[in-house]
Design a protein that fits this description.
alpha/beta, six-stranded mixed beta sheet, 41% helix, seven-stranded mixed beta sheet, Rossmann fold, Nucleotidyltransferase, domain 5, 17 helices, 17% strand, 2 domains
Length: 476
């Protein structure tokens, strides 16, 4: 045996001894003792070895130790009675840190997790997976100098394999034999196809090994994994849903000064108040959208469905029967403000039903003009036939036409520019009840070429309808 080999063996032996010594102190300890007086009593009796978190060292922020807070007890209690947990949380609450600690405790409190796996799925980047495993190892290294020689994405604790998987490489994740705990970290930021895949694979293990499945994330875009799951009826959703906004951490993990500074960011509602989509879009300034909502609250009281000869109303239709929705928006000019009085998107409607809804809206709201995405010829020709309006073979539009097909490919940039101009001049009022339209406005993004970006999660159908409505107004 060479000196180098001997040195490695001695080092490995010392590593095991250090681990064993620490793990013996942790065995049979509580994760945290939530009753303060009881915690103090056990702390004195055990000479500081009162619970897992005090033994390995408390969480730190800005160099200061932090205890576990009441919102973390809410999570702990949920884990004692539910195996599937969904947590939408504000940034900076320390929820990922909480679960890394909880996972380590599960492995070390007894031998229940021996010969099993704990899985952590991160975003589509191997560096994220490596960072989380490093954080797990650091729980034991900083205070106790316990070193682990496992590979970068794996940690062995008391016979349990903890492994982190990037969301875009799940082959190994699909083939586990005994997963006991699955953590999906920042799951709302996985790519759309990965969100569906990760959820499917995770829930497939329920019948095999019945693991805990925990999804945690700050909200991302509307239509994503978390928004979809939040809309699932309570009666059919298998997950215990927990909402933790910034108020949970106020005067605990955040100072009031930190929150006041954070409020200056347009992404504050998303990062701290659990609102989908805020701070994502780049088409409109957040202040302009907020002002349009204020105007909507003020102006909607002036609207009346009865015919107003001094005004004019437009219905816009973005037809969709497959991956996108069948969306309709109605606007009217009131007191110099274009107010949205109707906005709704229908999920995969029957064709004739959608036509009937459009025709009924035309009559009910006494519509002057109807603007339709011209690419769906069947819809606008059907509407023309319904009201007895002629269809021009040369696609020429006459001033007298009520049903107007619009070529998005030619006019999309001008309609976008016109809508931006209206918003910047505080001339659009969107009442707050039209939440789906407001989400579209907040998430709408354009590419460097000026084209509106669409995704499977954000088709922006109502936004396109509002763009169509600009055709009804003249710009000088």
């Amino acid at each position: 045996m060479t000196f180098k080999d001997l040195k490695k063996r001695v080092s490995a032996t010392h590593e095991v001894q250090q681990q064993t010594k620490l793990f013996e102190r942790i065995r049979d300890k509580s994760f945290w003792i939530w009753d303060i007086m009881q915690h103090k009593k056990v702390d004195i009796e055990s000479d500081g070895d009162c619970c897992f978190n005090h033994i390995i060292g408390l969480p730190m922020k800005d160099g200061l130790e932090k205890p576990l807070f009441d919102y973390e007890k809410k999570i702990f209690d949920a884990l004692q009675s539910h195996k599937h947990i969904w947590i939408k949380k504000a940034t900076g609450l320390g929820i990922t840190e909480y679960f890394l600690r909880y996972i380590a405790w599960l492995c070390l409190r007894n031998d229940d997790y021996r010969n099993s796996q704990i899985c952590i799925v991160t975003g589509p980047n191997i560096d994220m997976a490596i960072r989380l495993i490093k954080r797990l190892k650091a729980l034991f290294e900083a205070k106790h100098n316990v070193i682990f020689s496992n590979k970068e994405t794996i940690l062995e604790l008391n016979g349990c394999t903890i492994e982190a998987f990037p969301s875009n490489h799940l082959d190994s994740y699909r083939a586990l034999n005994n997963p006991k705990f699955i953590l999906l970290d920042e799951a709302d930021f996985f790519r759309k196809g990965e969100q569906e895949d990760v959820r499917h694979v995770s829930e497939r293990y329920i019948a095999k090994s019945n693991p805990y499945i925990v999804m945690i994330s700050t909200p991302n875009a509307p239509g994503g994994l978390f928004d979809t799951m939040e809309r699932e009826p309570e009666s059919t959703c298998m997950y215990k849903r927990i909402h933790l906004d910034y108020t949970c951490g106020l005067d605990r993990i955040y100072t009031r000064e930190e929150i006041e500074k954070a409020k200056q960011s347009p992404s504050f509602p998303r990062e701290y108040q659990l609102a989908y989509g805020y701070g994502i879009g780049n088409v409109f300034l957040p202040d302009h959208i907020d002002r349009s909502i204020e105007l909507g609250s003020e102006q909607i009281k002036y609207f009346n469905k009865d015919y107003n000869p001094a005004s004019s109303r437009a219905l816009s239709i973005d037809p969709g029967f497959g991956s996108s929705k069948f969306a309709m928006v109605i606007t009217e000019l009131i007191n110099g403000i274009i107010i949205v009085v109707y906005a709704k998107a229908f999920e995969k409607p029957d064709y004739q039903e959608a036509i009937d809804v459009a025709f009924n809206l035309m009559r009910e709201y006494k519509i002057n003009k109807v603007f339709v995405d011209g690419s769906n010829r069947a819809v606008w020709t059907t509407l023309k036939n319904t009201i007895g309006e002629s269809i021009h073979d040369n696609d020429e539009i006459y001033e007298s036409d009520m049903i107007v097909p619009v070529n998005f490919g030619v006019e999309h940039k001008k309609m976008l520019s016109d809508l931006q101009l209206l918003f910047s001049n505080n001339m659009v009022a969107v009442p707050p009840q039209f939440e789906d339209l407001i989400l579209d406005l907040r998430t709408a993004r354009t590419s460097a070429e000026g084209k509106v970006e669409k995704t499977a999660a954000a088709q922006l159908d109502l936004f396109d309808c509002l763009r169509l409505c600009t055709k009804h107004y003249r710009f000088e």
